Amino acid sequence: MLFWVAVRNAFDAGTMEITRKLAEFVYHTKFSDMPDDVVQKAKECFLDWQGVALAGTTDPVAAIVGNYVRSFGGRPEARVMGANMRTDAASAAFANGVIGHALDFDDYHDETVIHASAACIPAVLALAERNRLGGKDLLEAMILGIDVCIRIGLGLGDYHYQRGWHTTATAGTFGATAGVAKLLKLEVDQIANAFGICGTQASGLRQVFGTMTKPFHAGKVSHEGVMSAFLSHGGFTAPKNIVEGELGLLDVLTDAPDEAVILKDLGSRWYVMDLSIKPYPT
Prior knowledge:
Layout: H1 2-12, H2 18-28, H3 36-56, H4 60-72, E1 78-80, E2 85-87, H5 89-101, E3 108-109, H6 116-130, H7 135-162, H8 167-170, H9 172-183, H10 188-199, H11 213-233, H12 249-252, H13 259-263, E4 275-276
Antiparallel strand pairs: 1-2, 3-4
Helix pairs in contact: 2-10, 3-5, 3-7, 4-5, 5-6, 5-11, 6-7, 6-9, 6-11, 7-9, 9-10, 9-11, 10-11
């Protein structure tokens, strides 16, 4: 509690370093800090994503990504849904990310239009399976990842989406990275560094909507989350101010950034609660 009081005081004083504060949030926050209704909503979103992904295994894109992953023969660390196959965690995250978003039936955040579960769950699920972690670990990482990616999306603002960027593919990479970093128990500097690695990969254009490359975006960010966290864990370097820095995310990918909203009510407002579960795909 004292940590979050200090965060809010620093925010009020206008001294926030966005990337680092998000890293501190991911590092310090525990499952026990998360209200019961937040955990329950996360369980509902996880169950919804599983059902949508299972249905997605019948889409033609599932066979294509399954064959692609199988052709490289990764270590059998995590399952690819519907493919009777296990592969390395990064490849499983990619494949399941594509499959889970194939039908466009997965949950989303109304204001940012981010498909947050599709961006975060495949990455944390693959890592949880690889490292034989439990349900609480998975939910903790999932909730944190969803919170981070939606906060980044809000910071990028509506202009970002209207300009042609697919927010699931840009902000989503931060969520997947945050979740995997939590499961790997990275330190604050390592998490901020991982954000730097994923931030330079933040891309995805709405021109691809209506093709298989739209669900590719969810697989892309899931893969990036695994890669960015592992590279940072191994000592790979990146700027630790990728969000707010000159020529960073907010400077380059939007003309109307909102820095304040990213850290507003950090640790007390949980954006998983704002996810809408679709009654039909659209």
